[in-house]
Amino acid sequence: MKVNLEKIEKNTAYLSFEVDADKLEEAIEQAYRKNAKRFAVPGFRKGKAPRKLIERHYGVEVFYEDALQILLPKAYEKGIEEYNLEPVDEPKFDVQQIEAGKPVLATAEVVVKPEAKVNKYKGLEVEKTVYEVTEEEVEERLKMMQEQNARLVAVEDRPAQDGDIVTIDFKGYIDNEPFEGGSAENYVLKLGSGSFIKGFEEQIIGMKPGETKDITVTFPEDYGSKELAGKEAVFNVTLKEIKVKELLPLDDDFASDVSEFDTLEELKEDIKKKLQEDAKSKEERSLRTSIIDKLIEETEVEIPDVMIDHETDNIILRLAINLRDTFGYDLSTYLESTGMSLEDLRERYRDAAVRNVKTSLIFEEIRKAENITVSDEELEEKIKEFAESSKTPVEEYKKSLTPQGIAQIKDMILTDKIFDLVIENAVITEKVEDKIKNDIIESEEVKDEVNTEDENAAAETENESIPEKTEE
């Protein structure tokens, strides 16, 4: 068997194969033994007809396709190994000659991983955002805790007002016919939250407990459900209860009730410490983002479309898993609620996919250039760290790891080491921000920064539907 690399052009390798005639004969015989039962030849039971007779009856080429399926993958694997190619897609074969007693002549066209030319990765000039935690932020976080721990007190001596938390029963009708998802009982709603269609909550204001009222609203033209979009609906609403939040005073009793601390000052100190930890984590992420931006600027690479398509698929798969695990619904439901098609979603994440692929190729080149590896001790330490984080015995955690899981942990360690190398050799300037927005300070699970571009789109699911339960 001869395999030649004819050329590599625009990330496509062209291989030619010549397979000996005797290897073709072996493959045809193997194909015959595998498929003999498929052929009916008069005078023979299925599977018992001689090969020559089947070939005479059905044509001499009858086993060629199966023989090629045996020969070509082996020839292709030999070529990939011999010329150290890294395919990123399935090969496209073209057969020039296949005939008993003669060599098989064929070619394969295969897209291979491109090499990134990283012009510079040491001495990069990057900016790091530094966040200073202020007393104002501590007070804001304390007020959030006060809101979260507020008591709900029933109100009976006045009608509903904006900001009240009401319990309602409702039934929705379009053209006097009820529609799916348009009714609920004992539904808790914060007036003014925007959880319902525009105009619904406003018409509850002024109602008293026990009162029933018809509320007329119109679904937006761009509403996620085509059956409801633009339609006028009438909701028969019964207001069952009105409650308001009663805030607890911020004192030592509050601190001991909502935390492990005995005094308000101790609670404030803990809040400040956690904000500082969150700030440090966000600073690190901002620095890594700046580094990736700069590395991409310093790199020349031509990425095959197939790699971008594959990474787009990966991003959407991660989104689908997140939707399922976090919100309990599937991707098709998300697409319907946002009014997007799958192609719209793919286009939305294409730039993120390009960035991810570029970053991965850049990191691979740096790893090779610096001979960065992961030792057994480093892997063991990281596994131990994850086990402790998940409060699982180390040996039990190890048993739960698949080969893919171990590979991901190794990649994570490599990523950290590459970032450390680049940061160590970078020229870093600092930009000071004196406030950290509450909506971005959340504890995060360890993740691979190389692939952080796929944003949490699940959180963007439009809230203009009937309805999502308001948190008390």
TrEMBL record:
GO molecular function: peptidyl-prolyl cis-trans isomerase activity; protein folding chaperone; ribosome binding
PANTHER family listed in its UniProt record: TRIGGER FACTOR CHAPERONE AND PEPTIDYL-PROLYL CIS/TRANS ISOMERASE, TRIGGER FACTOR-LIKE PROTEIN TIG, CHLOROPLASTIC
EC number in record: 5.2.1.8
Biological process, per Gene Ontology: 'de novo' cotranslational protein folding; cell division; protein transport; protein unfolding
Primary subcellular site in the record, as a coarse category: cytoplasm
Protein name: Trigger factor
Composition bias, Acidic residues: 443-465
Species: Tepidanaerobacter syntrophicus
Family: Belongs to the FKBP-type PPIase family. Tig subfamily.
Catalytic activity: [protein]-peptidylproline (omega=180) = [protein]-peptidylproline (omega=0)
The organism's place on the tree of life at top rank: Bacteria
HAMAP family xref list: Trigger_factor_Tig (MF_00303)
Keyword Zinc: no
Signal sequence, renumbered to the chain: none
Role noted for this protein: Involved in protein export. Acts as a chaperone by maintaining the newly synthesized protein in an open conformation. Functions as a peptidyl-prolyl cis-trans isomerase.
